[in-house]
Specification:
This protein has 467 residues and is an alpha/beta fold. The protein is 31% helix and 17% strand. The longest helix is centred in the first third of the chain and has 17 residues. The N and C termini lie far apart (70 Å). The N terminus is likely disordered.
Length: 467
């Protein structure tokens, strides 16, 4: 029996069976916020009981079981009491709106709120009617929202790679969401719609991954939304600090305020050419999908046909200014024309990869996209990586780079700088970036991960001034 079964006021909100999409999203994204972090974010956006919240309007895009909405409601009621405002049903109902796509979790959130309102003297029918407005079972990304209506937007939006969404749901989102946000990661349209919903001077406070600041998929979002807000806080915290359960993502507390008018861009004197403008190309090492299958210790190299093997370098092999001799080799399953090799022609390689066949077959590229079981995610061929290159580890305490002329294939955690259309030679570039210059400039440009690690992503490497 649902919590409100038999009450006519709740007939439209009776808990249905969770549909497949809601169940999938909840299973992937249902990581809830610690109560102290909820309080920190509410404090940061001035949703505090000592403030006058009686005419404010708070929005939460994905309320889960009610961690944010319950604490926000408690603060709201205490503000009404402090300001000697009576608890009128119509007044309270307008103050909070939250969404939850999973019906069972939405019911749990309502179950936290009803006793709170009844404890403050509201009747059962008034409490249920108010909570029906406060917690809506529905999809925030597809529900029409009034732009510029809310004074506060808070929450912990879901993180899920766009490619992992159920195909039909992904197609529906791509029909209704702006193209610059329907990509990359599910959190991005939540952040975008949250900003859009804010009135001028309103605050947004999210527990959110900081990938919107630097990832290529968020470039359109940054161009449109960042001129509309002031970023008041962007503080990384650890997963253990942030979440009730164990999580692998590294979040930040981000607080923004909606500007009265977009800032005019500040014109800066041109200091010189960036690495990209100077004609250098930056690309990331290939993704394999199962490193233990495709990468072998060099003392096992005789277990694979030698014409398929090339040296393989990991981030730990790249020192500051030098490269260790490769201790591993990678199987290049593509020929120099970019065609996947026929594994039947390479019995030793087939035998080696067959040891890992179960894991290889479980990969998304095989299960969902119909690739043959031995195909790596990216095309890996020796020809592609044979030229000279500067290698940069993606994540490091102190950014570093080194010159490689061995023709080694870099791991997916390495970026390669190559002189595709540059007038300057790579050796000259290496000299310019030496003597601590690269580390100093990247530490200014690139975002920081937990523990003080610098994220040397392509976008920031390309911004380095080199000429």
């Amino acid at each position: 029996m649902s919590l409100f079964e038999g009450d006519s006021a709740w007939s439209q909100n009776a808990t249905p069976r969770p549909d497949e999409h809601a169940a999938i999203l909840h299973a992937a994204c249902g990581i809830y916020t610690r109560p102290d972090i909820v309080d920190t974010i509410l404090d940061s956006v001035d949703w505090c009981p000592e403030k006058d919240l009686t005419d404010m309007r708070l929005l939460e895009p994905a309320c889960g079981d009610g961690a944010f909405v319950a604490r926000a409601a408690d603060r709201l009621l205490r503000s009404f009491i402090a300001k000697r405002r009576p608890f009128r049903r119509a007044d309270l109902a307008e103050r909070i709106r939250s969404y939850e796509i999973h019906p069972g979790e939405a019911a749990r959130a309502r179950g936290r709120l009803i006793p709170m309102l009844k404890g403050h003297g509201l009747s059962k029918s008034d409490a249920q009617a108010i909570v029906a407005e406060w917690v809506r079972t529905g999809d925030f990304l597809r529900d029409p929202l009034p732009a510029g209506h809310f004074t506060h937007v808070v929450g912990n939006p879901p993180y899920m790679r766009w490619s992992k969404l159920p195909a039909c749901l992904r197609a529906e989102y791509e029909q209704v969401l702006p193209a610059e946000t329907a990509r990359g990661d599910l959190f991005l349209p939540f952040l975008d719609r949250g900003i859009e919903a804010l009135k001028v001077g309103g605050y947004l406070g999210f527990l959110c991954t900081d990938r919107w600041k630097y990832m290529g998929f968020a470039e359109g979002f940054r161009a449109i939304r960042l001129p509309q807000v002031d970023i008041l806080q962007d503080r990384p915290i650890t997963p253990a600090e942030a979440y009730v359960e164990k999580a692998s993502t590294y979040p930040s507390i981000v607080v923004m305020r909606r500007r009265r008018a977009p800032k005019k861009p500040v014109r800066r004197a041109r200091k010189g050419l960036s690495l990209k403008q100077a004609g250098f190309e930056v690309r990331v090492g290939p993704a394999l999908g199962c490193t233990e299958a495709f990468v072998l210790p060099i003392d096992h190299a005789d277990e694979v046909e030698p014409e398929l093997l090339r040296p393989w370098l990991s981030p730990s092999d790249v020192q500051d200014g030098s490269i260790r001799d490769a201790s591993r080799v990678v199987i290049c399953m593509y020929d120099n024309q970019g065609k996947l090799r026929d594994i039947e022609r390479f019995p030793k390689t087939k035998a080696w990869l067959s040891r890992h066949r179960h894991k290889l077959e479980q990969r998304s590229v095989v299960r969902k996209h119909g690739a043959v079981w031995y195909r790596p995610i990216d095309k890996v061929s020796g020809e592609t990586w044979k030229g000279p290159k500067l290698l940069v580890p993606e994540l490091s305490k102190t950014p570093r780079l080194a010159f490689d002329t061995s023709g080694a294939v870099p791991a997916h955690g390495l970026y390669s700088i190559e002189a595709s259309d540059a007038d300057m030679e790579l050796a000259e570039l290496a000299a310019k970036l030496g003597d601590g210059y690269f580390a100093k400039e990247m530490s200014k440009l690139a975002p920081k991960a937990s523990g003080g690690y610098v994220r040397c992503y392509k976008r920031f490497i390309e911004m380095l001034v080199v000429a």
